[in-house]
């Protein structure tokens, strides 16, 4: 299809009353929006609010159940992926949509060949043209363009580079609209800045950009229109630089979100529950002395290589320490394997819920009851299904997990709900100490709020909580004390109440302080 | 907040020397069967210097021609993330039925139309596999086990069970057409049959198709991540039908070659030879999980299998040992390619 000149006044893309049903689920409820050439837009909303469905329809991955989609004023309702590409709509999905076994050049350049042949496969390809397209796109995002890099298989590249390759592909063709689904998740601050400059250049050449994001700071840095969705509806359009976090949070969730501290610090210091004494692991951390009181929330933070990740794994029994000991209520623990830590009452919710925590294709019920199967036995030693279902239902209710039922596979849930299933599994073990590692990574503000309330409720019940996180507001809102780790040791322990984010940040970054703030 | 570890883009995209070697091996898996062939030949040659004679090369090439065609088909299916075990049944069905038809109704037919018919019939039967895999959304292995049994049963029930030797003249002439001959020291004349060329041509064509056409790249794209390939606009269903049809087509051609070379048509032939063919493809560097491998690697894998299974006889090694040695090679291939994956994958 020939490129149509965008007539003045005609928006690049317009949707009119889009609806989408998945079986009985009404995922989109009449979304009408307008995207102008050269504009930037931020699609904001809780996990499961219909953002992904909307971009799937715009990019042609799925048809709408009803409603209209206009591109440059022309009705393109029901377009397929190739028609969408042809119309100039490029999408960078969160999984990047890269083919792991093909080369960098092919991942960037093959799409154009496919569009030129209108999807017909019995055509010759032009490797020279593919390399050409790839070189131009790669130089736009400041990646190398030498033949060796062009021939590298995607699966041999680190994730941050893959992210940039995916973005390079999106801008390789002169796209009218580039959709990016949380493009900065795996990027460092420097790479984010690089990306923002790429986006500015794109906008100057008239390309519209639509971000799906949870990071309001980045959205404000880029500027543009915020499109806030809730329960499948577009509830608010705003200037992102003007709207406050509280306003956006209210639009997204329909309820007031706590902006201050969740934590009501207890008047008296709690009785010590778990003590970490002189714990050390070669090349990871050393001389760690920490105490967690009953009902206390201890934050642990530091740079990625500060040793906090290894410490967390050691406490979970995943990386046995070589020195020191861990004592729970006066009894020394055996941190050589997860099973002994779990039975002692230590629950560890890992950072990467997808690869370390959940069995995605299994049901919610199977995931929740996994760690407590021995408590669900009947007299024959077999699993009592009724008890299992009751426990799962209780978890769904308490943690406000939105799901089709206890037997729905975990992968059918949104990110925030998946995270809650994982937390629910460990709460089912009634732990004495709960270790949460990055509990709200990739989770929207509404889910964050729910997760924070769960954490607080656990602490109220006397569980000792260790919250390991990068998210400073999260630590300040939730913790009693915050331990900062640097170069493998605890450098300082703060009282969280009244602590300035700036002070905490400077301690994390170290005296030099010029390691600019990340993510 | 994960500061200080800013990814140095330039560093991470410039691998070290050793890493480069692994990356190179990953792109050229043929290096494995090539190395195994050289080692095997060196050992056999050291024990029995007679082995290193052109006549033996001719023998190996001749014995590899049919398996080579079948292996190319299997490779293409494997590259697209499927698995086909019905190709021997397709080959047997096509060769026996077609030879029967030609002998009884068209005794004067030339070899070119016969080959074309075999390719077409095999392609249609293969396409049925592809359609079933798509329609049933079932694993290709299960579907092709089913069609293998169904085809073999149909052949023996409805077409015939008797072998016959009066094959059409054009076929027997094709089977005997020489490309080159040599005389051994003992005065034996060994011929390199012309049909070896057919396999070479098909291999070159397959390699060209896989590397320089959209369908070829689509095969690897689908073999790598089908759901992403679909999202990018590759028609996954078309690719699946195509690869099974292609494997069926090559199986049909291989069937005619088999009859031509042996000068007899036996409906019980070829059954049970699937595994060595699949083994050859895996030895050549194609992962069973799809999306990888090369035509050169596949062909060298076939030659390695032929070398071990036919030439070890020269050394007086019993055939039970050949099987064990072959098993060793396959395990070694598994280790080697798994090692590559561990070294290069992020």
From TrEMBL, chain A:
Gene3D superfamilies registered for this protein in UniProt: P-loop containing nucleotide triphosphate hydrolases (3.40.50.300)
A GO molecular function held by the record: ATP binding
InterPro entries: AAA+_ATPase (IPR003593), ABC_carbohydrate_import_ATPase (IPR050107), ABC_transporter-like_ATP-bd (IPR003439), ABC_transporter-like_CS (IPR017871), P-loop_NTPase (IPR027417)
Domain ABC transporter intervals: 13-256, 268-512
Keyword Translocase set for record: yes
Keyword Transmembrane: no
CDD domains per UniProt: ABC_Carb_Monos_I, ABC_Carb_Monos_II
Keywords: ATP-binding, Cell membrane, Membrane, Nucleotide-binding, Repeat, Sugar transport, Translocase, Transport
Protein name: Sugar ABC transporter ATP-binding protein
From TrEMBL, chain B:
Transmembrane parts of this sequence: 30-48, 69-98, 110-133, 154-174, 194-220, 241-261, 267-286, 293-315, 321-340
Gene Ontology MF annotations: transmembrane transporter activity
Membrane topology type: Multi-pass membrane protein
Predominant place of localization: membrane
Pfam families according to UniProt: BPD_transp_2
One of the record's GO cellular component terms: plasma membrane
Compartments, as annotated in UniProt: Cell membrane
Entry keyword set: Cell inner membrane, Cell membrane, Membrane, Transmembrane, Transmembrane helix, Transport
Protein name: ABC transporter permease
Source organism (scientific name): Paracoccus onubensis
């Amino acid at each position: 299809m020939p490129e149509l000149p965008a007539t003045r006044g005609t928006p690049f893309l317009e949707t009119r009353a889009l609806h989408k049903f998945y079986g009985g689920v009404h995922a989109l409820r009449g979304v009408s929006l307008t995207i102008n050439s050269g504009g930037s837009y931020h699609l904001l909303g809780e996990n499961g609010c219909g953002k992904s469905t909307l971009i799937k329809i715009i990019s042609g991955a799925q048809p709408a159940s009803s409603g209209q989609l206009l591109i440059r004023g022309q009705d393109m309702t029901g377009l397929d992926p190739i028609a969408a590409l042809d119309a100039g709509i490029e999408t960078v999905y969160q999984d990047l949509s890269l083919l792991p076994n093909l080369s960098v050049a092919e991942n960037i350049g093959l799409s154009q060949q496919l569009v030129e042949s209108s999807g017909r496969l019995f055509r010759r390809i032009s490797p020279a043209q593919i390399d050409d397209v790839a070189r131009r796109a790669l130089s736009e995002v400041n990646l190398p363009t030498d033949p060796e890099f062009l021939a590298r298989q995607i699966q041999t590249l680190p994730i941050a580079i893959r992210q940039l390759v995916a973005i390079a592909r999106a801008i390789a063709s002169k796209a009218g609209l580039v959709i990016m689904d949380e493009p900065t998740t795996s990027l460092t601050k420097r790479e984010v800045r690089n990306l923002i400059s790429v986006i500015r250049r794109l906008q100057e050449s008239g390309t519209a950009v639509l971000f799906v994001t949870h990071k309001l700071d980045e959205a404000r840095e880029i500027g543009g229109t915020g499109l806030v969705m809730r329960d499948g509806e577009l509830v608010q359009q705003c200037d992102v630089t003007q709207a406050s976090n509280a306003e956006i949070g209210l639009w997204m969730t329909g309820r007031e979100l706590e902006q201050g501290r969740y934590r009501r610090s207890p008047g008296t210091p709690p009785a010590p529950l778990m003590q970490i004494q002189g714990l050390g692991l070669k090349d990871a951390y050393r001389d760690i002395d920490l105490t967690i009181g009953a009902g206390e929330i201890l934050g642990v933070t530091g740079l990625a290589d500060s040793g906090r990740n290894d410490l967390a794994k050691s406490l979970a029994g995943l990386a046995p320490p070589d020195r020191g000991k861990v004592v729970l209520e006066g009894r020394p623990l055996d941190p050589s394997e997860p099973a002994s830590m779990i039975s002692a009452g230590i629950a560890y919710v890992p950072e990467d819920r997808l690869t370390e925590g959940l069995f995605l294709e299994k049901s919610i019920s199977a995931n929740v009851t996994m760690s407590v199967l021995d408590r669900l036995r009947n007299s024959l030693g077999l699993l009592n299904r009724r008890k299992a279902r009751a426990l799962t239902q209780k978890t769904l209710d308490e943690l406000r997990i939105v799901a089709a039922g206890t037997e729905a596979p975990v992968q059918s849930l949104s990110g925030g709900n998946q995270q809650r299933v994982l937390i629910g599994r460990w709460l089912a073990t009634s732990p004495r100490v709960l270790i949460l590692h990055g509990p709200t990574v990739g989770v929207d503000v509404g889910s964050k709020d729910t997760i924070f309330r769960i954490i607080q409720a656990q602490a109220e019940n006397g569980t000792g909580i260790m919250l390991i996180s990068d998210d400073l507001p999260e630590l300040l809102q939730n913790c009693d004390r915050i331990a900062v780790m640097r170069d493998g040791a605890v450098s300082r322990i703060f009282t969280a109440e009244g602590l300035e984010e700036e002070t905490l940040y400077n301690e994390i970054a170290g005296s030099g302080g010029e390691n600019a703030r990340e993510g | 907040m994960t500061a200080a570890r800013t990814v140095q883009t330039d560093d991470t995209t410039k691998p070290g020397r050793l890493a480069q070697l692994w990356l190179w091996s990953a792109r050229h898996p043929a290096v494995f069967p090539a190395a195994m062939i050289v080692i095997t030949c060196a050992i056999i040659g050291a024990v029995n210097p007679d082995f290193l004679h052109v006549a033996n090369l001719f023998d190996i090439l001749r014995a590899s021609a049919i398996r080579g065609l079948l292996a190319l088909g299997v490779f293409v299916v494997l590259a697209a993330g499927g698995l086909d075990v019905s190709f021997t049944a397709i080959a047997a069905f096509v060769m026996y039925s077609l030879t029967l038809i030609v002998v009884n109704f068209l005794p004067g037919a030339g070899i070119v139309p016969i080959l074309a018919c075999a390719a077409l019939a095999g392609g249609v039967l293969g396409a049925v596999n592809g359609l079933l895999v798509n329609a049933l959304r079932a694993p290709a292995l299960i579907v092709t086990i089913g069609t293998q049994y169904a085809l073999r049963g149909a052949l023996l029930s409805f077409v015939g069970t008797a072998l016959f030797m009066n094959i059409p003249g054009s076929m027997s002439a094709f089977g005997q057409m020489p490309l080159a001959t040599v005389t051994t020291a003992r005065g034996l004349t060994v011929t390199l049959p012309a049909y070896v060329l057919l396999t070479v041509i098909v291999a070159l064509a397959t390699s060209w198709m896989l590397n320089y056409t959209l369908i070829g790249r689509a095969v690897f794209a689908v073999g790598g991540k089908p759901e992403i390939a679909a999202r990018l606009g590759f028609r996954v269903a078309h690719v699946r039908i195509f690869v099974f049809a292609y494997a069926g087509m090559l199986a049909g051609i291989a069937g005619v070659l088999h009859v031509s070379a042996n000068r007899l048509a036996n409906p019980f032939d070829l059954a049970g030879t699937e595994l060595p063919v699949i083994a050859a493809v895996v030895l050549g560097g194609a992962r069973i999980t799809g999306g990888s491998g090369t035509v050169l690697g596949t062909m060298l894998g076939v030659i390695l299998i032929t070398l071990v299974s036919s030439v070890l006889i020269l050394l007086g090694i019993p055939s039970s040992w050949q099987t064990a040695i072959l098993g060793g090679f396959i395990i070694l291939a598994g280790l080697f390619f798994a090692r590559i994956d561990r070294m290069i994958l992020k």
